[in-house]
Amino acid sequence: MGKVYDTLNDRLREFISEQPVYFVATAPERGGHVNVSPKGYADTFAVLDDTTVAYLDLDGSGVETIAHLRDNGRITIMFAAFAGPPKIVRLFGQGRVVTAGDPDFDGLLKHFGPHPGVRSVIVVECDRISDSCGYAVPRMTFDEDRTLLDEWGERKDVQQKRAYRAKHNRQSIDGLPALEADETDPAHDRS
């Protein structure tokens, strides 16, 4: 039976830190596509306080999360145990996009490991923290992180990243605005 928590207690924090992958779900306010994105690299997720979490938003082909958060702020983050006891933790809340031009961007980056191609930091104020059984989640072993995204980011100079973001990250697949023109400039080569 699942349980709802008021805060991210030590047990939940430990569970979250042990998961090599997590999933982020968002949707536009009206119509459009629901988006679910898998996220890896353990050092891209941080618990900031008892009800606030954040993760690094790295360069990628889609920009749905940014567009949806700017549209309505709704977000759910899910962790599922593929090893150990069967468990799922969901963090429901209101998210905001913090880009290099925001005053708290540099302070947030200190919570994460170094990665090239940081587009933004997504900060989530959790309004519901819950767990449930993961009885149907298969057991799988974690071999290693794929390094392809970081390698791609390392190969791109500032101008190439700017051009990529301008072409692929200005709007969602449904045409919602995402990154502004001044937000496509990679201010930081690494987090």
From TrEMBL:
Residues 161-191 are annotated as: Disordered. InterPro entries: Pyridox_Oxase_N, Split_barrel_FMN-bd. Residues 9-130 form the Pyridoxamine 5'-phosphate oxidase N-terminal domain. It comes from the Bacteria. This is Pyridoxamine 5'-phosphate oxidase family protein. It comes from Sphaerisporangium dianthi.
